[in-house]
Structure formats: structure tokens, C-alpha cells
Amino acid sequence: MKILLAILFCASLAFAHEWHYHDKPAQIKAPKGGLIKTLEETHVEVLEDNGQVYVYLYDKTLKPKSVKGFKLTAKTKLPRADKEQSLELKAQEKSYKANFKSKAHRYTLILTIFDPATGHTDTLNYIIEPKR
Length: 132
Hints:
Blueprint: H1 2-18, E1 35-38, E2 43-49, E3 52-58, E4 71-77, E5 85-87, E6 90-91, E7 95-99, E8 107-115, E9 120-128
Antiparallel strand pairs: 1-2, 2-3, 3-7, 4-5, 4-8, 6-7, 8-9
């Protein structure tokens, strides 16, 4: 009986190891502590700070990218709201900035981004919880 239990225990350890996934992709840490999402050639980080929304662009190695050639539009959607509200993004050298003070405890930021490296447009949604 003890031998049978030992064999089952060893077999279960070997079987468990076979299912272990060694090539799991690394989680990307946002350089400025915001929320980061990935496009084909660009990482996009969004950070909210006291009514200011910042959008940062990075290459695949998380080095800041110039905003030159990118076209971004932004909209916000409040919980239980039927309509989206346009948000004016102002381009800076390596980021975009917008003012948006929301009384809601959470809202969705919808970014539409034209990436000149790929030549096409993508949409990213971020759930933003403003700091109070």
C-alpha cells in the first residue's frame, strides 16, 4: 500500500510539472505607474492625476516615442450614460494631455490611435478611477 501511494505521489508530481508553462509572457510594468496596453508597434500608457489625463507612447522596449505622425482622439463615457463625450487632447513632445474632471468614481476613456509605424488605426478602452 505504501509503495502504491509513493508511486501515485511521484507520478502526480511529474504530471504536474509537465503542465507547467515556462514561456509565459512577462507582464509589462507601466513606466509612469499608469495603465498600459499594447498595440503592434507601440505601448500606450494612460495616467490620470487630479483631473489631468496623460497619454504616453513607448516603443517595444518601453523607450518614449515622439508623438510625431500619431493621430489620437479621445472620448469619455460615464457609467450609466448613453452618450460619449469628446475630450480634447493636446500634443506635447512625448505625450498627450487633456483636462477632464469627473464627479463619477469611474469612467471609460476611449482612445482611437493612428500608428504611423503600422499605417492603421486601433481603439483602446481604459477604465479610469480618478484619484480623490
